[in-house]
Write a structure and sequence with these properties.
heterodimer, A: 180 residues, five-stranded mixed β-sheet, 5 helices, B: 151 residues, alpha/beta
């Protein structure tokens, strides 16, 4: 007993310092980078040239971005901030106008850019188009279920997406602005 | 007696630091767990574009990265980096195949390529990469971007 009592205690006061040092090391090396971005499913590759489909002009929403990152929508220049709203309006066609899509399932968004378009501009346009769809899905989900699109379960989501399918078709880019 | 008591009251009580090591250790373990060492040094300068409400990528174990950017900010000589080396368009296919080989069959479907591209890069390169990915039957991609900060 007496001997045990005499056993020297390990001095733990430096433990905190050691832990601190390690902590700082890990703090510095940590990169908590969650990848964020736009998820896209590319179309499958086929060697044959795609079939040319006859589409009614009213069902096609053509978006072009040129090498100067300017936007041309259905033949007319547009600001990026208007794109989202116009896209949603085109697809849903709430007023049943003659020049907008007959119904959402027939609507096609055609996106064409130049090889000289900057990635930033392209992504911004792509995001706005997707956001347009997202707005519609949310509105529809709210109407049918009183929920946000993201809160629906997968089956309902699929049904909804069958009624308003996301169709962004990307054409081969032009190459006017490649040599800068 | 009285004076002693008063003295005691005026003295600021010592904060016990006995639990400090434990607290630090918990923090330490947290950071040890979340730390992912970047094993592949990035040779390119990449500023990702900012967009509104980007989606979260799902599983980083099912992802591989392709980087596009220039070696310094002022240069316009855009290069592709795969793993830790500069690559050409032709290298994409073997890279995708190699990455997919490691995965069990049921997860191959969900394998995603993350494109980390500098915002100033011209779409020509991006388009070539997209074609190369489609040719290697890799359709699932994510355009990596940062959320836009509202001012």
């Amino acid at each position: 007993m007496g001997r045990e009592r005499q056993q020297p205690e390990i001095n733990a006061s430096s433990m905190a310092d050691i832990a601190f040092l390690l902590l700082i090391f890990f703090l510095v090396t940590t990169t908590i980078d969650v990848d964020k971005g736009i998820r896209v499913l590319l179309p499958p590759w086929s060697d044959e040239p795609p079939e040319t489909q006859k589409l009614k002009t009213r069902n096609v929403f053509s978006v072009m971005v040129n090498a100067n990152d300017e936007l041309l929508v259905r033949g007319e220049p547009m600001e990026l901030k208007d794109l989202r709203e116009k896209t949603a309006e085109f697809i849903s066609n709430p007023e049943k106008r003659e020049d907008l899509a007959e119904k959402p399932t027939k609507a096609i968004i055609s996106l064409k850019n130049d090889r000289g378009t900057s990635y930033e501009a392209y992504l911004a346009v792509y995001n706005e188009l997707k956001a347009g769809y997202n707005d519609l899905w949310n509105a529809e989900a709210d109407k049918r279920f009183g929920l946000k699109y993201e809160d629906l379960d997968i089956a309902d989501r699929k049904k909804l997406r069958a009624d308003i399918p996301l169709v962004i078709s990307e054409a081969e880019p032009t190459s006017f602005g490649e040599e800068k | 007696m009285l004076t002693l008591k008063r003295n005691d009251k005026n003295r600021f009580p010592q904060v016990s630091t006995a639990s400090l090591p434990d607290i630090i250790f918990i923090l330490l373990f947290f950071f040890m767990v979340v730390t992912v060492m970047r094993s592949k040094p990035l040779k390119l300068e990449i500023t990702k574009p900012n967009i509104q409400d980007p989606q979260n990528a799902k599983d980083r174990k099912l992802m591989a990265y392709i980087y596009v950017g220039a070696t310094n900010k002022s240069s316009k000589d855009y290069k592709i980096q795969i793993d830790d080396a500069f690559a050409k368009i032709e290298d994409i296919r073997p890279f995708v195949d190699r990455q997919k080989e490691k995965l069990p069959i049921e997860l191959k479907e969900r394998f995603t390529i993350s494109l980390r591209i500098d915002k100033a890069v011209e779409m020509g390169i991006v388009e070539d990469i997209k074609v190369a990915l489609r040719k290697s039957k890799q359709q699932r991609i994510i355009y990596s971007a940062n959320p836009k900060l509202e001012n």
